[in-house]
Amino acid sequence: MCLKVLICAQGVILMNSKHITNYKPKDFAELLGVSVKTFQRWDRENILKAKRTPTDRRYYTYEQYLEFKGINGSDNDRKTIIYTRVSTNGQKDDLKNQIEFLLNFTSSKGIIVDEIIEDIGSGLNYNRRKWNKLIEECMGNKVDSIIVTHKDRFIRFGYDWFERFLSKYNVKIIVVNNELLSSKEELVQDIISILHVFSCRIYGLRKYKKKIKRDEEIAKSLQSRDKTNNKTNTENQSKYWSL
Fold it and tell me: What residues are labeled active site?
């Protein structure tokens, strides 16, 4: 029997299945996108019955998630994927280097690779088609592990968030950390892109401020004209009543 060590908030748990994760009601509610009160009602109505610890604390399992979503939970169907990425078509040689390096790594570790993804697009772009398809497959219980040469190959910013997110679907990201395959030129380009976006926003704010200033000047002009008209009307009324 193969035991897996799972480190969680409650401590270290020994498990005899490769992909079993226990969730607190709050975490499971977040995973399914419903409220904890809804879970409590479903528990009472036997729609989705919570399991109980020896101390009578409620919890849910990954199998319950798969069953609720109607997903086949067979471990044999879950893939190990090599994910490689460069920013431009001109970096295809770098793409080949990543693939070669990761194949050598997996071969030395005895890891069987089911699929290799070659992606071209900025690490700042969250709309990469192949990357989004990979995320969807992870959420559909089709992926076991994703292997990358460096964190920024997967995503430029927010890697820790995505790692935590995918861990909820029992997906591991294996980062080999080969700094030589993480292009410094790409990082510079991404930083320039960020600066460009913010400079455009600042320029837009300046234009907006100018518009506000013009609107304020128009408003002051109208107020001044109204005061002049009111003064003239008052003077005319005074002359009328003095006759």
Answer: 87
Nearest residue to 8 (alpha-carbon basis) of 146, 174, 20: 20
If you compute the radius of gyration of the chain from its CA atoms, what whole number of angstroms results? Answer: 30
The two tokens of residue 108 are 């030395």
- Residue pLDDT, tens place only, 158-206: 889 999 999 988 899 999 986 655 555 555 665 665 565 556 666 555 5
What whole-number distance in Å separates Cα of residue 171 and Cα of residue 134? 11
- The number of beta carbons lying within 10 Å of the beta carbon of residue 217 is 10
Q: pTM of the prediction?
A: 0.53
Question: In the Cβ-directed half-sphere of 174, how many Cα atoms lie within 13 Å?
Answer: 16
Q: What is the DSSP string of 78-143?
A: -EEEEEEEESSGGGHHHHHHHHHHHHHHHHHHTPPP-EEEEEES-TT-TT-HHHHHHHHHHHTT-E
What is the C-alpha to C-alpha distance for residues 119 and 85, in angstroms, rounded to an integer?
5
Taking a C-beta distance cutoff of 8 angstroms, is the pair 162, 126 a contact? no
**SS3 assignment, position 158:** coil
